[in-house]
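Lay summary. Proteins are chains of building blocks that fold into shapes, and those shapes determine what they do. In this project we predict the shape from the chain. Here is one chain we studied, written as its sequence of building blocks.
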Amino acid sequence: MPVLDWTRTDLTAPMPDGSLGLRFDADAFAAFDLFMLRRTDAEKDWHPDQIQRARKLFDNSTQTTRDTLTRTIIAGLPGAEERYTLDVFRSALSRYLDIGASGLASHLADFIRAVIPAAVDAGVNLCIHPDDPPFPLLGLPRVLSTAEHVRRHFAAADVAENGLTFCTGSFGVRRDNDLPAMVRDFGSRIHFVHLRSTRREPMSGKGQCSFHESNHLDGDVDMIAVIGEFLWEERRRVRAGRADAILPMRPDHGHQMLDDLNKTTNPGYSAIGRLRGLAELRGVARTLGQMLMT
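And here is the predicted shape, written in a compact code that computers can read:
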């Protein structure tokens, strides 16, 4: 993901149970893009309905709200070390104006073909994380958001070591991604699993949808079906005698709750929320595993 790592507009969005979670508000992001960043030709990337909603949101916001949104998006990226000002950020974006999705995909393929021989020699599996969110932002291309993108990436170096980090939350934001089918299709080359669930939010009018991080067993991800497919993949690997039969997994992006509400934690990585998710996911895996054995 060029320039931006995973991107949200709110790092402490209130959830129905009183916990706090990560949220991407598409209208707020459009307001930032159009009226705060004032990116050249930004209006071409947004539906007229969304532009109208973004304008209303911007006009009704305070300077403090605008500053907070800007900091959340560019000044303190959750997954990176960069710290941008608006001017530096505009300069960083300009480097990608002439690259486009096909150019970025070509660069990625060149990189993979260059490094994969060393990975094969060293016995190291490479696994790429999907785009988050899995759609273009700020004119930046996206090259790993769909099943077709994954197939293209695998074809660049058709060896098992060129693999995938399967993030259910990232892929799950898109309605056109069938996650259980993707696990079946790509299972042999999935080397790391991030289990989290996102929920798309209804909107008034047309445009890019908003979403938030849901509880691990809620949201739009059919987590039970996905975990079931991963258990089948592990069984296939055991039968094939693979040394990497057990897939490494983590509960990702937990909510901030209970005592963690009083602590300073990295966004999405509070201890208690992820432990809750881990307990739920282990319960699903244990139950499905028992069913597979009967």
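What the prediction tells us: The chain has one domain: 10-293.
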